[in-house]
Write a structure and sequence with these properties.
Number of strands: 12
Largest sheet: 9 strands, mixed
Radius of gyration: 22 Å
Strand content: 5-15%
CATH class of one domain: Alpha Beta
Shape: globular
Structural class: alpha/beta
Helix content: 25-40%
Distance between the termini: 55 Å
CATH superfamily of one domain: Enolase-like C-terminal domain
Bound molecules: magnesium ion
CATH architecture of one domain: Alpha-Beta Barrel
Number of helices: 15
CATH topology of one domain: TIM Barrel
Order of helices and strands: EEEHHHHEHEHEHEHEHEHHEHEHEHH
């Protein structure tokens, strides 16, 4: 008896379209390694692109896609997205980790791109169609001083943005989203360390000044980047209450997410968490356990558009808003997936965005650009975005700078902190 081919197409399909190739392309036009999955088919010109970016471990994602995923799906009908993604997850037996879920995200988004191209529709129409014209976005302002941060925010407001994330510099190489304040803690065993006490003191000062100088209309956001204890998180949230934050992001590291419900219950400002979720399972718990007001997953880390659209519906049913993660370590394909969901989801709250350099727009023709803070999806089939592989090859990625930065976040005593 011959062993059945468990990777073969399990049922009849209405046409003979089949996946013929799966590759991962890594490129760093802005210095940050991006990973894009390309799925080819036996139909001339029909292929899809997906974002699999895990910038700190991109080599492993490329290997996962090409050495493991490709063999599972080549020969299969690309329209069976849910089955292909479940096959890719379950066949590994162990699941829910980063690397694997980044690779799956790339495959998943590429299949949605193909589905849109086959239907002649942009992906947001496959998701039910638009219920808003565009996604409102926020950008980051982070200066070496409070004045510099407020100047950057004022400039963004001048350019049309209605939402801005504010960070202000701290001493030490762990300062987040800003340059560091010059000078060291010379009385400490690790003089270039970061001080949570300094952070808790200066952050309310930043927002007090911001409200005074920027006025009441602009929406202000802030990211603690996983560095607080539950009590510190509540203390900060209460100190920020008078300045009416749009949201306070990532107050606790993922290791402490079980404590989020009590932090959120005690916080007078909305809590946004989720960029470090690496599976739909993790993200579901955040919603189910009443841990968040805004869910902000990295769609390229949780398994792609398929789980993200389920999460968006879960958020809708639970009164939670979405704020998908999307700084420079999301590729323009990932941005397109975020925006397809944003414009078609009731749960949309806000969209993080990033202005790429010119080289990135050369590598990704059709990439979306925010205009006066609004991101509007392409109306062309699929994502409406190409990957110019020749242009991409001019920017070979090196090792990510992100992990070197994260490894530098230490306290004044030298102890490593959550980055
Ligand atoms: Mg963040």
């Amino acid at each position: 008896m011959t062993r059945p081919d468990t990777f073969a197409q399990p049922w009849e399909t209405r046409d003979g379209i089949r996946i013929t190739g799966v590759r991962a392309i890594a490129t760093a036009p802005e210095g940050t390694p991006l990973v894009v999955v390309r799925v080819d088919t036996n139909v001339d010109g029909l292929y899809g692109l997906g974002c699999a970016t895990f910038t700190q471990r991109w080599h492993s994602v490329v290997s996962f896609v090409e050495d493991h995923l490709a063999r599972l799906v080549i020969g299969r009908f690309p329209g069976d997205i849910e089955d292909l993604i479940r096959l890719a997850r379950f066949s590994a037996y162990w699941r829910e980790g980063p690397v694997s879920n980044n690779a799956l995200s790339g495959l998943d988004m590429a299949l949605w791109d193909i589905a849109g191209k086959r239907a002649g529709m942009p992906v947001h129409e496959l998701l039910g169609g638009k219920l808003r014209a565009a996604a409102d976005t926020y950008l980051h302002a982070g200066g070496a001083t409070i004045e510099a941060t407020i100047d950057q925010a004022a400039e963004l407001r001048e350019r049309g943005w209605r939402h801005v994330r504010l960070q202000v510099a701290q001493h030490g190489i762990g300062s987040y989203g800003t340059p560091s304040i010059p000078g060291e803690f010379t009385d400490s065993p690790y003089p270039v360390g970061w001080s949570v006490q300094e952070y808790l003191r200066t952050t309310p000062q930043l927002f007090e000044r911001a409200r005074t100088e920027l006025g009441e209309e602009i929406e202000l956001l802030h990211d603690s980047h996983s560095r607080l204890t539950p009590k510190q998180a509540v203390l900060l949230a209460r100190r920020l209450e008078p300045y009416r934050l749009f949201f306070l992001e990532d107050v606790l590291a993922p290791e402490l997410w079980d404590r989020l419900p009590e932090v959120r219950a005690s916080s007078p400002v909305p809590i946004a968490v989720g960029e470090l979720a690496t599976s739909m399972t993790d993200a579901v718990r955040l919603v189910r356990d009443r841990s968040v007001d805004f869910l902000r997953c990295h769609i390229s880390a949780i398994g792609g558009l398929t789980p993200a659209r389920k999460l968006a519906i879960l958020c809708e049913m639970n009164g939670v808003k979405t704020a998908w993660h999307s700084p420079g370590d999301t590729s323009p394909i990932g941005v397109a997936a975020n925006v397809a969901l944003d414009v078609s989801s009731v749960a949309f709250g806000i969209q993080e965005t990033h202005e790429y350099n010119a080289a990135t727009y050369d590598v990704f023709p059709g990439a979306l650009r925010a205009d006066a803070g609004w991101l509007t999806p392409n109306e062309t089939p699929g994502w409406g975005i190409e990957l110019d592989e020749r242009a991409a090859s001019a920017y070979p990625p090196g090792l990510s700078g992100h992990d070197a930065w994260a490894a530098g976040v230490r306290g004044r005593d030298g102890a490593l902190e959550a980055p």
